[in-house]
Design a protein that fits this description.
The chain is an alpha+beta fold and about 220 residues long. The protein has one domain. About 15% of the residues lie in helices and about 35% in strands. It contains three helices and twelve strands. Strands 3, 5, 6, 7, 8, 9 and 11 form a seven-stranded antiparallel beta sheet that branches. Strands 1-4-10 form a three-stranded mixed beta sheet. It has a two-stranded antiparallel sheet with strand order 2-12. Helix 1 (about 20-35) crosses helix 3 (about 200-210). One of its GO terms (cellular component) is nucleus.
Amino acid sequence: MNNENISNFDTIPIDLFIPDKIKLATVVKNELSTSFGEVTAEWVDCPDLTQEPFNLAAPGLGGDATLLDIGGTANIFPFRQLKIYDFKNILNQLNRSQNNNFIIGGGLSTQPMTLNYGHLIMNGTFAPVANEIIAVSNKSRFAFRNRFNDQGEEEQFALEILNNPFSKCHMYGNFFVSQGLREQVLKVEAKERTGHDFIEAIQRGISRIFPSKLFSNLIVVQL
């Protein structure tokens, strides 16, 4: 297995479709109404997402939003290659390091101390570069299989809080990057399910009304 820290890499920018806000809210509400008894979908000022029940590292989702698709399964099959992608390097290469950045999403990673493989649940902020340093404030999680605990007893899974400045993804990942600003967001509430689940219903409505479109600025937080 090859270990490789990726500091220079190719990027492929893709312009994404941004729908009309009112039309998007209508599409979401109409589709969810076919699968839920009570539905609301409206644009509102973003609440402070650092508070309960969200507990994100930044107060909002707005500001220069970007989707990142890092690496891929080719780094795992047919032969595993330990490629390490540092978000600080990525922000530098995307010319974003002069501003605040908020990154959420998921990917494969290794536990910083033991190098156990697991899933990175990214939730961190990156301050503007100062004296060639990008400070990281981390509220991320790392989910991994821990075969034995300190007492020698077998455990299936564990969830670790990463409150250190860990800022790396291994092999692959999908992430949403913004400046963490509190701008307007689409608030969706659905109760009394009678058909498709929440995510599937939204996807069905969007794909039917906006066929063959790649979307930007759409984040679904399912509590």
